[in-house]
Amino acid sequence: MTSKDTRLVPITAKESEQLRQTAITIQLRHVIEEYQNGLPIQPNGTGKELDNTFIINNQGYEISGKVVPEVIYQLSAFYKQRNRAATVTINNYSYSGPEIVFSRGQYYLLFIKQKSQQHFSTLVSEFFHSVSIWQILAALGISFLVCFALAWYLTRPIHQLQKATKAIAKGDLQARAKDFIGKRADEFHDLAEDFDLMADRINRIIMSQKRLLSDVSHELRSPLTRMQIAASLAQKHNQATDDPSNCSHHIERIEVEVERLDELIGELLQVAALERGQQHQQVDTFVVNDLLDVIISDAQFEATANNKEVVFVESPMIHFKGYYNLLARSVENVIRNAIRHTPEGTRVTVAIKDAGPHFSIIIEDEGQGIDESHLDKIFEPFYRPTEARERSSGGTGLGLTIAKRGVEVNDGTIKATNSSNGGLLVTITLKKNRRVN
């Protein structure tokens, strides 16, 4: 048997039925009897349905003289060894057989040839009869190991990420996914980086909220303490004398502290509203120069009372679409902060710089400036460059925080630097053609 024998598979029921039907047709047409009577048989003369049949006598010859393919003899040898018919597919043709046909005491082997349909079942049958059981088991074993390794490779980083999320859920805000996932160079590494960025952001927000709560508690305690002292002194003076005018000074002090508390609580509410993204106003298109004219006119009144000056440098006309009141409050807070810190006899300069798709509002004072390490922190709530928390400069400590939130709502940025003249320079940068949802 040749190497082609490995492609022989047991015959299907359909092919077996076709063989029997072909054998019946041959007997009805007396094809074999004609051959036994010595009559010539034309290969294609017994009907179209018999053109693709091979009838082999006991000497191994085809009775009509047709050329017999080698595969027919392989099927015959397979039948003698296994005592069962088989089928084989070669070059898109399937050969099936044999079917035993008896005539006048002699037997003949009938084979048929037909166009192969290559059904899935045939392909599977050919596969399983072309390989040994050990080859199948080896392939299954290798597949199992590969699948197990792949599953472990894919699920392990997920379990590591799960450890990081559980650590954060338990309150460990310093837990990071990279500490668990190790060194990788795939999408899980990118996911771990995004997770760590999220964890950093959450940690900063929570720490900011804690710091804000602590600062608010301190800021509220100071005026309340002064109110308690003033009320106590007023009560003592009232008991010591019958003249009510002696208590007026302490009552005025209490009124001042109440006003400060009212201002502080109002600004806290505004910061909270900006943090939640609540603007409570419509988007307008306006001229930035007109907005600055109104703000500087009011600020000039305050500056003149302290022998200071606010100057608006001639600037290009800029149109802007955004939240008018929020931008006005932001600019006003920065200008008022500059007025408080610029010395008497100096001035605060305001200008607009056109930079193509962007424009900047520049506010510069002539004060002492701020240490470089504090420049990024002055926009945090209640932050002061010095450790002492005195109110010698005035304000609630929320003005620049509100300014930053208002600028960010208008899709802009605010930055503080030390100017060349030694003062503080604050730059508010905004987009001209801003899209507003």
Automatic annotation (TrEMBL):
PROSITE patterns: HAMP (PS50885), HIS_KIN (PS50109). Residues 152-207 form the HAMP domain. The lineage of its organism: Bacteria, Pseudomonadati, Pseudomonadota, Gammaproteobacteria, Kangiellales. Its EC number is 2.7.13.3. Its main location: membrane. It comes from Kangiella geojedonensis. The keyword Kinase applies. Residues 215-434 form the Histidine kinase domain. PANTHER family: SENSOR HISTIDINE KINASE CPXA (PTHR45528). It is a multi-pass membrane protein. It catalyses: ATP + protein L-histidine = ADP + protein N-phospho-L-histidine. InterPro entries: HAMP_dom (IPR003660), HATPase_C_sf (IPR036890), HATPase_dom (IPR003594), His_kinase_dom (IPR005467), HisK_dim/P_dom (IPR003661), HisK_dim/P_sf (IPR036097), HssS/ArlS-like (IPR050398), Sig_transdc_His_kin-like_C (IPR004358). It is found in: Cell membrane. The chain crosses the membrane at residues 133-154. The keyword Endoplasmic reticulum does not apply. It is an enzyme of class 2 (transferase). This is histidine kinase. One of its GO terms (cellular component) is plasma membrane.
